[in-house]
Give the backbone structure.
Amino acid sequence: MSDTAFTPTLPLLLCSPETPTQAADLQALGWSVRTISELAAPTDGPALGLLVCADRTALAQLAHSERAFGLPVVLLSPPPPEHERRALLARGAVQWLPTDVDAAVLAEALLWARDLAAAQQQRDSAAQAKLDERKWTERAKGLLMQARGIDEAAAFALLRNTAMQTQSKLPEVARGVVHTSELAEALERAGAQRMLSQRLVKLQALRQWPKLAPPERREAQALLDASAERVAANLARLAELLRHDLAEELTAVSVAWAQLDSCLSARHPDLARSDRAAQRLLDSSETLVARLSGRAGQRPVGLLAQVTRLRLLSQRLAKEGLLAQVLPGHDASGLAAGLDEFIKAYDQVRAAPLVGPALQPAFAAVDEAWLVLLRGLRVEQGDAVQRMHQGSERLLQALEALIRALQGSLQLILG
């Protein structure tokens, strides 16, 4: 007896452009037959195609199309010549039979075509998986080479040794490196949005200081423009990294930035209005950082959010100091609170289990720059604006260097 009778589930049989003469016998054998005008993959489950060409004219017309069928197809037709056979094979035909073939033979051929297509798909999937694994490994090697300044052989050895030490497969380690790197970059850029919200207002306040010399005013404007460009670049890159994930949070950041950008671009900028808009950008960026930090969990990459927060606190501190000098009636109570907040946050970062040859020099630079900013905050009013600006710029550069050192540490990259 035919195996067809014992097949519990048969794929839908799509016949085009007409029903074959064997249709009733196929249905008796358990096939569900549907006639359609043109073969295409259905949306309601697996299917096989049965292409019926009663004459050579119809066969030639089918061979002229280059569009793939989208499903395995058995061809019932007169014997096709070689060029038509190649064309139909390219479209997805897996078997040919004469139009008057016995229904039982056709049913067996259909099962053969089904299994052949499944085997081919399995081989294609395995080949694609190997290709994907190779791509992950190549991407991970590139990231290690860039972060650690090593060559390709050393990067591969690092991945291989990590796989052996953790009893993991090399592709799994490679995927982990790539995902961690992307999460770290997303955390850094989202954290930068927090800092830039305060930096932009700080620079706008600096430009409005009446004692600023024209060259210094132009420099402040250049820094302000560069910071605005950085916000836009971060938003674009975050959209790439998140791939439509956390879309609501990222949209909120984008909307808040548009509002702040409008304030900064006003013909007669209002510092108080800009500061309120900056707070909205800060709040929305904080939410995005919190979501990303939740994904990092207890992994070392989560420490990046703490370090990037120091940038925000340093720029907010300098902003509050400048607004107190430039904006009449500005509440300066946030200045003392900002000092305490930065010291507390920095102590937490210093107490974190961070190791690496580049980290200690980076911390030393932050310590030195922090003292410079403190001196700027304590001088008399005549020199305070310039000192605070210079100190905050130096501290920002030192914190940026610390973040780069942390991003390049094996502790973070390998998790």
